[in-house]
Amino acid sequence: MESIHGHEVMHLIAGSSESRSRQDWVSVIEEKFGASARFHTCSAENLSVGQLLDFLEERGKFASRDGGVRIDRGDICDH
Predict the structure, then answer these.
(1) How far lies 33's CA from each of 2, 37, 69, in Å?
(2) Would you kindly state where each structural domain of the chain is located, as residue ranges?
(3) Are 3 and 40 a contacting pair, CB within 8 Å?
(4) 4-75 carries CATH number 1.20.120.1200
(5) Does residue 72 register a pLDDT over 70?
(6) pLDDT score, position 52
(7) How far, in Å, CA of 9 to CA of 5, rounded?
(8) What does the pLDDT look like over 46-64, one tens digit per residue?
(9) Which of 13, 26, 35, 68 is deepest in the core (most CB within 10 A)?
């Protein structure tokens, strides 16, 4: 199975006009990439969607706003 870079998930969230709950984002991500999809970042690999969201949150890449989770495009690195 091919691993999906976390940037793809970040762009998906940042590109949405909706502020969704974390669980809603898990459902959206699983629907788009598959429930068994694995993810990687520049410094981590073999992450589940939940682990990826934990990783991003720990690094301040997204924030809860208006009862949901949002990512600002400026928080996505370009490498």
Answers:
(1) 11, 6, 19
(2) 4-75
(3) yes
(4) no
(5) no
(6) 94
(7) 7
(8) 999 999 999 988 888 877 7
(9) 13
- Per the listing, tokens 């989770």 go with 69
CA distance 10 to 69: 11
- Using CA atoms, how far apart are residues 22 and 71, in angstroms rounded to an integer? 12
Q: Is pLDDT above 70 for 2? A: yes
pLDDT in tens, 10-54: 889 888 888 788 899 999 999 999 999 999 998 999 999 999 999
* Cα distance between residue 42 and residue 38, in whole Å: 14
Pick the closest to residue 78 from 51, 42, 52 (CA basis): 42
